[in-house]
Amino acid sequence: MEALKQKIREEGKVLSETVLKVDTFLNHQIDPKLMVEIGKEFARRFKDEGITKVVTIESSGIAPAVMTALKLEVPVVFARKHQSLTLTENLYRAEVYSFTKKVSNDIAISGDFVTAEDRVLVIDDFLANGQAALGLMEIVEQAGASLGGVGIVIEKGFQKGGDAIREQGVRLESLAIIDAMSPGQLTFRE
Ligand code: 5GP
Questions:
Q1: What angle do CA 71, 76, 77 make, to 5 degrees?
Q2: Residue 33 above 80 pLDDT?
Q3: Banded pLDDT at 83 (limits 50, 70, 90)
């Protein structure tokens, strides 16, 4: 998606060989117009998959997931990373090691919102080693739902998450794939 790549080139900051900071439009401040375009693009790519629910993880997956779900006209469910007083029963859980925060989170989704009747599209902001996406896929499986695919805003193609998901035969669509980066330099896959 050219507009996204352009935005990453203009505003992204490569903090190290593996961490890209995009706080100006995705991870802290959010650019709503770009999110609408991202949602339209995911919806276009997955429109024939019979998606009934978009599933993401708090917090940075929520904006692109909502815009996608709006276009597909289905609800969004976000996995919670923290214990909630109101989310206690009928839970599906997975353990996810956070690439950026270096801690393990127990993520959870209520069985009230993802069921065996659902066909799920998993959306997230970044794909690095695949922990977040694989954790969400595990929850979809626990719920007995079917997986229509995984949509990622920015995939770092030099980390192992993309292969881990594609190897499972899952349809993975990433709107921008970075093949290499270092401070001051970014190479996108064509
Ligand atoms: P994974 O679970 O695939 O290893 O990492 C994906 C998660 O870690 C995403 O949900 C995202 O929040 C975070 N993440 C991974 N790599 C980056 C990065 O380079 N920059 C930012 N801002 N977040 C990242």
A1: 165
A2: yes
A3: confident
